[in-house]
Amino acid sequence: MSRRTGAETREHVLGVAHELFYRNGIHATGIDTVAAAAAVAPTTLYRQFASKDELVAAYVERADQATRAMIEAAVASAPSPRAAVLSMFDTQLAEMHRPGYRGCVCQMALAEYPDHRPAVVAKTWIRERLRDILRAAAATDADALADRLLLVHEGAIAAAASLGPGGPVTQLRPLVELLLDAHGVPAA
């Protein structure tokens, strides 16, 4: 059996931490639990992450990067700003149907660590991305619309986590379309 490089060990530990933090919660999952599940010594884990806070930050940042990539792929394939916004929400809705979905890593981190900087950065990026798209669409009051859509986004995530993908989130797309229409975002 070959040994992992430092980068491979870091990624392996981060993957295991992600599964445990997402399933069990951050506070409920100790470093020793992560090390045991990753089959590494605690000293090896601490060589990769100086503290649990550093591991949590890396976990949130990793989830943020995956979300950004998913959103950017959805936006890139859209033929118009309206389609880009709808594609963002459709992509999020598809995530909500994924087996084991428990909600947003950033929302979960903020619930346990108020003002968690990497989670706030992630949420701010989504808000700014919506603003950029809506400004390009010449939406009436694009900034207010972006904030309204962000509220819908965050509420949908919470509703899917608590009530499942067959609950209120079935109204996600019609609500987004209603808001886009109200702000004059054209179909093409």
TrEMBL record:
Coiled coil: none annotated. It comes from the Bacteria. PROSITE patterns: HTH_TETR_2. SUPFAM superfamilies: Homeodomain-like, Tetracyclin repressor-like, C-terminal domain. InterPro entries: Homeodomain-like_sf, HTH_TetR, Tet_transcr_reg_TetR-rel_C_sf. Keywords: DNA-binding, Transcription, Transcription regulation. This is TetR/AcrR family transcriptional regulator. It comes from Dactylosporangium vinaceum.
